[in-house]
Specification:
Length: 272
Amino acid sequence: MSSWKQAVARAFDGAEGYDRAAGIQGRVAARLAERIAALPLAPAPRVLEIGCGTGFLTAALRERLAPRSLLATDIAPGMIDRARARAPEGGGLRYLVMDGERPCLAPVPRFDLIASSLAVQWFEDLPGSVETLSRLLAPGGWLALATLADGTFAEWRRAHLAQGCAPATPAYPTPASLRAIAAPGCTLSVETEPLVEAHPDGRAFLSALRAIGAGTPRGGRPLPAGALRRVLRDFDAAGARVTYRVATCLVRREPGQAAEMSTRMLPRVACE
């Protein structure tokens, strides 16, 4: 795991104020659960969740799907602790600290659904991870991902560019690059929609990112104080609003197409 990914895990581990600041995350999880509930899933599906956080999507999936089993995973132990406090294990629900890019499950299970809401934008190799996760799908199973696409934080980026600065936010993938992801034996569709969040001012926006553990910069150096003040001034003058361009990626393993398992999936925990 890279030093940047380790920093991301530490930030989420310490995000004690996540639920108070995660308005967009709650909205996206609810919308993704609605999309998933409309899919032709197997009855009482076997579900794997990647990046469960404090359990927004976990709760929505349990309510809508009544899964036979749900393994909720997250890279940050602190997030697992918060999710477990909200919904204790039992009734088919289990938790596991795991990096979703490197699933370690044995015996290797077959899931009817693998779901993730606003987590895979932190992956270092999204195309490779989609292929890896798709191999865990049962024939006819679904991989449903809500992630961030190009255009996210466009207002924050414009405020930086107006001052001749480069923002430290990630370069999110375009919808075209998401549609180009290949998973053998699977079909893939991508839809995007904008969600806008208003803040009292730019400092409140930055505080909200830090509160949910999403303030880890992707490259670059922090702006000098004077440059940051000018960026904040322009951002506030434009309304202190940010757009999240949310991409919903639906991958389906073709019925009758079981995947061969990779040796990357090393023993870690038994799944039923």
